[in-house]
Design brief:
Elements lengths: L2 E4 L4 H11 L10 E3 L12 H7 L4 E4 L6 H6 L1 H22 L2 E7 L24 H19 L5 E6 L2 E2 L6 H15 L3 E4 L3 E2 L2 E2 H14 L4 E4 L6 E2 H11 L6 E4 L30 H19 L6
Parallel strand pairs: 1-2, 1-3, 3-4, 4-5, 5-10, 6-9, 7-12
Antiparallel strand pairs: 8-11
Helix pairs in contact: 1-7, 4-5, 6-8, 6-9
């Protein structure tokens, strides 16, 4: 099976490429890693030629503009990159009978529910910010493309609060902020009224490999680690793992001035995987990631960890 991965230079894309390298169905050549130069969200029109030339059978579309504040400042660019570019790719795949897995986000939901339940795959999306709106536009463009040219499979895989190796993620930023707070003799302030599902990129990648191995994966999937937390809960875990003696103080979401408005309740109800096994809890995943995180912080020097 010839599997191409867009956004192969990003956090999730790299994890997917690494996971697929061990998948027997990819063959000795492994997956096709498409970084930005191979599939540019600003110039997606040449993707049809690349699909034909490389004889692609499945595409995992992990490329996205994930700067949520940047999306809020330029909604039209967000729509072009996350919505229209996904549509171009989806139409090219559907026309050729190529299966497509589109990676999406919890931010297609507005986060206003108060019943304590996670958003299910069949809940009606209603994004509260331009990033979520642009990702929902991508979902809908892909759905329309595959409805117009049935035959191949389309999966939309929503995830949330991704962490893992790559550019600084939330845990890395917390380690740096906690070290600075400790040096200043101040507490670390973190949001105590925004809930989500911290999710390890490597675990999402493994789940995608499992979906592809099953062979039948069309539809919507929510792939997140088990348990949910506030940003402050997550920060406390990270600070404890880093052995930084810093108090974490809960602050309301409204305390932070941002261009984007994240969903206050960003919890997804996890979909069952083909194996019947749910992803492990986020603290279990963080336990695996912590040594990598702390090694990166140590290499970063005084600004990362004392």
């Amino acid at each position: 099976m010839r599997v191409a991965v867009t956004g192969a230079g990003g956090r999730l894309g790299r994890a997917v490429v690494e996971a697929l390298e061990g998948a027997p169905y990819c063959g000795p050549g492994g997956p096709l890693a498409w970084p930005r130069g191979a599939f540019d969200l600003d110039h997606p029109s040449d993707v049809a030629e690349r699909l034909d030339r490389q004889r692609v059978e499945v595409v995992v579309h992990a490329a996205a503009w994930t700067d949520v504040d940047g999306c809020a400042r330029d909604p039209e660019l967000a729509l072009a990159r996350n919505g229209q570019a996904t549509g171009v790719l989806a139409r090219a795949c559907a026309a050729r009978g190529i299966d497509l897995l589109v990676i999406s986000t919890n931010e297609v939901f507005d986060g206003r529910r108060t019943d304590g339940a996670g958003y299910a795959t069949d809940d009606e999306p209603s994004p509260a910010n331009p990033y979520g709106a642009s990702k929902l536009a991508g979902e809908r463009a892909a759905t329309a493309a595959f409805a117009a040219a049935p035959g191949a499979q389309l999966a939309v895989v929503r995830t949330a609060w991704l962490f893992g190796p790559g550019k600084p993620d939330f845990p890395a930023k917390i380690v740096a902020a906690a070290a600075a707070a400790l040096a200043a003799g101040e507490p670390l302030r973190a949001t105590g009224d925004e809930w989500g599902c911290p999710t390890y990129a490597a675990d999402v990648a493994d789940a995608l490999v499992e979906l592809l191995a099953e062979g039948s994966f069309a539809g919507f999937h929510h792939v997140v680690n088990g348990m949910f937390a506030t940003r402050a809960d997550w920060a406390r875990y990270v600070v404890a793992r880093a052995q930084l003696d810093v108090e974490v103080v809960d602050m309301p979401l409204a305390s932070w001035r941002r261009d984007s408005t994240p969903p206050r309740w960003g919890v997804l109800e996890a979909s069952p995987l083909p194996s019947g096994e749910a992803l492990r809890s986020w603290p279990e995943a963080m336990a695996d990631y912590a040594p990598i995180l702390l090694r990166q912080a140590a290499l970063a020097g005084p600004g990362g960890r004392p």
